[in-house]
């Protein structure tokens, strides 16, 4: 099988990101190549483990790896302090050692939770990310951000802990819910807008064939498209591991998207849906400031719509609450919101001089 590997290279580490059909089968060989010889602690969730857990365990045991599995409830609740504590208790109770590795099999929730457990237990052991959602394949599994939610807010406790390997088997998308798949396409489109006009064009060409999990895995091109979207994240985190510079561009669509998620209660609107709405609003803000043409705003809106994503704020959401919540965004510095705004399809700029009245106008115009 050709590898077509991407490689994340940061100041402290370098690791492959492998995207392809059936690549989970190559996990045992890859772990051996990485020199990982200890026990394996497989962490997954209740929707993913029944599909892929047992086969993966068997494959690893076949080559002699001791492997034990832990299953958390599916959904954002899996990223709670209680789940993390239970995970620690399980691993410590069963004799985890420094040379062991955590395998995170699931979406971004499992990746973040298991990643943070790996970052912190025994002051850090090896981590391998095995993403099973489109969002996790192109975004969450890459770049080393791990963490859990605190009752006072999402992702407030965490650490940077780079994995030793990211292995994204696109066959696992077969079992993903259609709405979750669509939500993932929002991040793929985002990567096109912020850095890869060619990817954006590819997405325009294939929109009608990538809507459902079945179409997605049968279509000849999704691996190439997903790999290309992952490549954007790989490139950005390789230049800015700790989010001190360019990494902020990945936040495109997220300032208003996060505010919308917070205003509606997490889970009502999926993350990707909120990001799609946030991207459309950000593009309109960019147009209002003379950075982007009306045609480009429309082109982005058409692509988001073609992938079944919403682009307008729900009418019943309080616009003033959204505005207030944007100020609580983690990227706010000295009370100035740092907006990631497109300047064309494939490039963005970061601006902290967007007048509040422009944002208010875009929010109330919908
Ligand atoms: N670390 C990062 O850089 C980063 C980046 C973006 C998002 N995130 C985090 O990622 C999380 C969202 O990730 P997500 O969208 O993958 O959500 P998720 O992990 O909750 O997965 C979505 C749903 O799909 C199910 N599922 C996952 N894979 C499946 C499969 N192959 N078949 C059947 N069901 C499957 C899950 O059980 C869950 O119900 C958020 O907590 C967010 O904060 C982290």
Core attributes:
single chain; 366 residues; alpha/beta; Rossmann fold; Dehydroquinate synthase-like, alpha domain; 2 domains; seven-stranded mixed sheet; two-stranded antiparallel sheet; 14 helices; binds nicotinamide-adenine-dinucleotide
Provide an overview of this structure.
With 366 residues, this protein is of the alpha/beta class. It has 2 domains: 6-175, Rossmann fold (3-Layer(aba) Sandwich), CATH 3.40.50; 178-364, Up-down Bundle (Dehydroquinate synthase-like, alpha domain), CATH 1.20.1090.10. The chain contains 14 helices and 11 strands. Strand 7 (145-150) and strand 8 (153-160) form a beta hairpin. Helix 5 packs parallel to helix 6 and helix 10 (254-264) crosses helix 13. The protein binds nicotinamide-adenine-dinucleotide. The site of nicotinamide-adenine-dinucleotide has 28 residues, from helix 4 and helix 5.
Structure described in brief:
Helices cover 45% and strands 18% of the residues. The chain is globular.
List each distinct ligand once.
nicotinamide-adenine-dinucleotide
CATH class of the largest domain, please?
Mainly Alpha
**Taking strands numbered 1, 2, ... along the chain, how are they ordered across the largest sheet?**
1-2-9-6-5-3-4
Q: What is the number of beta strands?
A: 11
Q: Given the C-alpha coordinates, what overall shape results? A: globular
Between the first and last Cα atoms, what is the distance in angstroms?
A: 49 Å
Helix and strand pattern: EEHEHEHEHEHEEEHHHHHHHHEEH
Number of helices: 14
Major sheet characteristics: 7 strands, mixed
Oligomer: single chain
The residue ranges in which pLDDT falls below 50 over 5 or more consecutive positions are none
